[in-house]
């Protein structure tokens, strides 16, 4: 009986001891796991610290090497500069000797050769002008004499944009291209539809495969010509009705600086006049002066290029009319726009006698100005407003 009582007492005691031992083993395993994890993290932190020290040391060594090389380059630059200055001095001395020798030597033969070269150059220039007159319609004989009036047709869209008619098509459609980067064209049946308050609901939306850059695009003969966004100087020809790209080209020299200083988003400005399609841009090599290029709108080939005397500084826009470039200037804060540089590609206009032409009754700036040769009007976008300017013209002299 006593043995049975002891057995009943020992069983719970042994069970409790075994349970405690099991918990102690689990705690020991947990502590061992935590210890190993801390050890691993400490090793990784130590390696990270060592890597940082190695990187700092490598950077210091590289900096010392770069500074040493730069110091050597500066010394070499000074030596080269000294040699160049010495060479220039010798060239100037030799040039003075040559000039003196030429002044005391009979040089009739040299003079005759020089005169022949001048005659040849004048002949070539005359032939070039003949070719240009054949290529361009020389009967286009009017020039801008003033801007008579303006009409604000609507105020819609962003600060920058472009709107126009297609002067090469016999329809009254209006096209609106909002923003300096976008890929949606709005096409309206006529100007009355465009002027309605909910005009976008009645517009035909045309989505381009690639967005445009700037606001210098133009619509001509059913095609949109535009500077492709993200490219240096790629011009795309897009069929509006078929909604596909039909051609593209790279405009030489363009895209590195803005065409107009006051319109920094516009690297290439495309224009249309009585002669067809033109491209306007500026180049660093010309000192920022504007360059105009005649393009064949069918083949997308360059037909001729002119370096003008019109500077892009303080310019906000430009347009072509009857073979003549008119550059519009303003102030950075937006004042009265004015035309004060004119360039005729056929030299049919005495640009020095043309007075400064001011745009009427308006303070602000233009993001684009396009000439419509069929209506003899300017379609302008000014601070979100769509404006039409009527022109006064006269015969070229």
Report on the structure:
The structure is a single chain. This protein is of the alpha+beta class and 397 residues long. It has a domain of 253 residues: Neuraminidase. It is built from three helices and 20 strands. The strands form five sheets. It has a four-stranded antiparallel beta sheet with strand order 1-20-19-18, with no helix packed on it. Strands 2-3-4-5 form a four-stranded antiparallel beta sheet. A hairpin with an 8-residue loop joins strand 15 and strand 16. The longest helix is centred in the first third of the chain and has 103 residues.
Structural topology:
Layout: H1 2-104, H2 108-135, E1 142-155, E2 161-164, E3 174-178, E4 181-188, H3 191-195, E5 204-213, E6 218-220, E7 223-227, E8 234-239, E9 244-250, E10 269-273, E11 276-282, E12 289-295, E13 302-311, E14 315-321, E15 324-329, E16 338-344, E17 357-358, E18 368-372, E19 377-382, E20 385-395
Antiparallel strand pairs: 1-20, 2-3, 3-4, 4-5, 6-7, 7-8, 8-9, 10-11, 11-12, 12-13, 14-15, 15-16, 16-17, 18-19, 19-20
Organism: Stercorarius parasiticus (Parasitic jaeger)
Coiled coil: 70-97
Disulfide bonds: 140-322
């Amino acid at each position: 009986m006593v043995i049975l009582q002891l057995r009943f007492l020992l069983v719970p005691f042994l069970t409790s001891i075994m349970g405690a031992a099991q918990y102690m083993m689990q705690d020991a395993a947990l502590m061992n796991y935590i210890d190993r994890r801390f050890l691993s993290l400490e090793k990784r932190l130590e390696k990270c610290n060592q890597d940082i020290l190695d990187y700092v040391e490598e950077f210091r060594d590289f900096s010392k090497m770069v500074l040493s090389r730069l110091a050597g380059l500066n010394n070499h630059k000074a030596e080269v500069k000294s040699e160049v200055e010495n060479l220039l001095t010798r060239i100037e001395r030799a040039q003075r000797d040559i000039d003196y020798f030429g002044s005391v030597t009979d040089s009739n033969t040299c003079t005759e050769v020089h005169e022949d070269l001048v005659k040849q150059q004048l002949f070539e220039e005359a032939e070039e002008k003949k070719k240009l007159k054949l290529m361009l319609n020389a009967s286009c004989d009017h020039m801008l004499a003033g801007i008579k009036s303006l009409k604000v047709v609507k105020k819609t869209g962003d600060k920058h944009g472009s709107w126009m008619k297609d002067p090469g098509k016999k329809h009254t459609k209006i096209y609106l291209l909002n923003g300096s980067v976008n890929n949606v064209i709005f096409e309206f049946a006529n100007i009355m539809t465009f002027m309605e308050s909910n005009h976008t609901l009645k517009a035909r939306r045309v989505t381009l495969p690639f967005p445009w850059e700037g606001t210098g695009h133009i619509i001509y003969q059913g095609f949109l010509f535009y500077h492709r966004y993200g490219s240096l100087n790629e011009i795309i020809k897009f069929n509006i009705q078929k909604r596909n790209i039909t051609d593209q080209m790279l405009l030489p020299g363009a895209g590195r600086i803005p065409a107009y200083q006051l319109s920094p988003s516009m690297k290439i400005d495309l224009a249309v006049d009585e002669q067809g399609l033109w491209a306007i841009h500026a180049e660093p090599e010309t000192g920022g002066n504007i360059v105009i290029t005649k393009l064949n709108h069918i083949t997308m080939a360059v037909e001729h290029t002119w370096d003008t005397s019109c500077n892009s500084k303080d310019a906000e826009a430009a347009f072509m009319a009857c073979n003549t470039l008119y550059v519009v200037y303003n102030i950075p804060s937006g004042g009265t726009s004015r035309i004060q540089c004119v360039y005729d590609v056929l030299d049919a206009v005495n640009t020095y006698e043309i007075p400064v032409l001011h745009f009427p009754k308006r303070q602000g700036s233009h993001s684009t100005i396009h000439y419509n040769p069929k209506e003899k009007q300017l379609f302008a976008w000014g601070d979100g407003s769509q404006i039409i300017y009527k022109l006064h013209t006269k015969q070229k002299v």
